Amino acid sequence: MCGIFGVYNLPGDANAFRQRALFLSKKLRHRGPDWSGCTVAGNHILCHERLAIVGVDSGAQPLTNDDESLILSVNGEIYNHKALRKLCPADTHFKTQSDCEVILHLYKQYGADVVKHLDGMFSWVLLDTKKNRILAARDPIGITTLYQGWSSKQPGTIYFASELKALNEECDRIIAFPPGHIFDSESGETTRYFEPTWWDGDKIPDTPVDYQLIREALEKAVRKRLMSEVPFGVLLSGGLDSSLIASIAARETQKIIDGVPLNHDGDDVDESAVASWPRLHSFSIGLEGSPDLAAARVAAQYLKTVHHEYTFTVQDGLDAVADVIYHLETYDVTTIRASTPMYLLSRKIKAMGVKMVLSGEGADEIFGGYLYFHSAPSAAELHTETVSRVKNLHYADCLRANKSTMAWGVEARVPFLDKAFLEVAMNVDSKEKMSDKKIGRMEKYILRKAFDTSDDPSVAPYLPDEILWRQKEQFSDGVGYSWIDSLKDTALARVSDETFAKAAERWPLDTPQTKEAYWYREIFEQWFPQDACTESVVRWIPRGDWGCPADPSGRAQKVHDSAYEPTA
């Protein structure tokens, strides 16, 4: 991933704005420390901060076609780029080995519909100088970040950037660009291009569960995300989701080592990174003695990864909170709690020279894995909630995974949010996702069962049972229970009762309901004091109508119990 910045239809010559644009783009350089680029065309300007992972030697951006009438700035990865190249005319001249250049050439064939052909995670801005047209698009779920802004002082001018911090000084209205949408200046409209079968949350699925299909779909999702020319690894918390991703990645990398080709079924897997760093590396973090560190150790030993375990102190975390909020650009409580250890871990990973990691975000939203889903009144309501959670991942876990890692120039890829996998998993009969502690049916039962090969001795187990059937621990809990407790205690000490009583006067909209939330909102305002900065923030609030406690921590849920014994 990278950082992109662009301005469409500046008043006057954009060259006069070039130095300012470079300054604003530089605010994104943590996302792309490898190279910077800037292209001016008429009264438009596109900038790019590059993190080189594919097409390392030749993929500097912004990208242009031969006559430079098309200019493209992209943040992301196009996993099916080799297959898409075959759709281009035989005489198409590719200037680079970048996976993103194919967007330029397919635009000439498909126009705005080019986005419908892409399989990947991406945010991009494409300028067609001949038509004076600009397109901007974001991947289906919002794995990558993109913001759009306007200034009342410059009617008709439109700004785009990977992060809020590049726009807040220029714009008096800023939104999070909606995932699965494309903006076209010809119509002036932003339209949804992503139309999966599961999008309507009120349409309750009844497809019987197919465990083999779930397993194969996730394996393929992981396989295509091994596309890399640089060393990569896996984030391993020791929970089910990250451990499954690590297990599949370990199997796939071993196939490469054994000489088994992975380029089948349309997958675009570059095996050079595995060849240069053959053993899979895994990374975990937690407070000393935390549940996640212990579980990750078990998983790593079983998977035979080169495991890197890091500890942090409560003070390390507290010292980082302000920086975390600066990078996250949110004041959502649960996001900040979980992002802080991920932010610290990403710095360690980058110090090792690793630029890309696989991560397990999305499974809890897809399969109803959070412990509060135990309180779902019915299968229909559970399904509606999962659809809502997946649709809003760009405000929470996708935002966390992207910005916590990209703060240090590390790219996180999330196989669970693969389009094809979502088609399978989101269409499973919602009754299959219901949890019932009374009969030992754990959260995410069908995902666990899909990778439980105990009934097939010909297939090596993916994970040891103690990991495969480990109860859900939210990352902010699993890194050490005292982490959240310390955040609450710190907020209690910093925010007086008198100050907190006036919270609604200070912030009549989206008023903080706890002192911890007040503390985060106050830090956010210090970094981003402009009124325009809050429109892109959405706080997740637990389902009080399901009887859930107000605290989003998994430990706050009644079902949380370290002694919980499931039945496989």
Automatic annotation (TrEMBL):
GO CC terms: cytosol
Keyword Transmembrane helix: no
Top-level taxonomic group: Eukaryota
UniProt cross-references to InterPro entries, sorted A to Z: Asn_synth_AEB (IPR006426), Asn_synthase (IPR001962), Asn_Synthetase (IPR050795), AsnB_N (IPR033738), GATase_2_dom (IPR017932), Ntn_hydrolases_N (IPR029055), Rossmann-like_a/b/a_fold (IPR014729)
Pathway in which this enzyme or protein is active: Amino-acid biosynthesis; L-asparagine biosynthesis; L-asparagine from L-aspartate (L-Gln route): step 1/1
Residue ranges the record marks as coiled coil: none
The protein's name: asparagine synthase (glutamine-hydrolyzing)
Species for this entry: Dissophora globulifera
